[in-house]
Write a structure and sequence with these properties.
Blueprint (H helix, E strand, L loop, with lengths): L7 H5 L10 E8 L11 H15 L5 E8 L11
Parallel strand pairs: 1-2
């Protein structure tokens, strides 16, 4: 399985067999309320990319940062 975010270099970069590798994985997703953009469901996106990291063998450490993006509140709503 190929990850959605990894470049070709992710799969082809030579690795030192005597070292252990890990990944820092940062993603954003659109959360609750009206969607402001069409995108891949976050569960699918994470599964595909984390599976790719595992397949590549980068399992020494995996740091995942996930941000939920929301539509900003309407500042004019309810103001009179």
């Amino acid at each position: 399985m190929r990850g959605m975010s990894q470049s070709k270099k992710f799969w082809t970069e030579p690795r030192d067999p005597n070292r252990k590798y890990g990944q820092y994985f940062h993603t954003n997703y659109f959360g609750g309320g009206p969607q402001v953009a069409k995108c891949t469901p976050v569960k699918t996106y994470l599964k595909v990319n984390l599976d790719a990291i595992y397949e590549r063998g980068d399992t020494q450490h995996i740091l995942t940062v996930i941000n939920e993006l929301r539509k900003p509140p309407d500042r004019n709503k309810g103001s009179g």
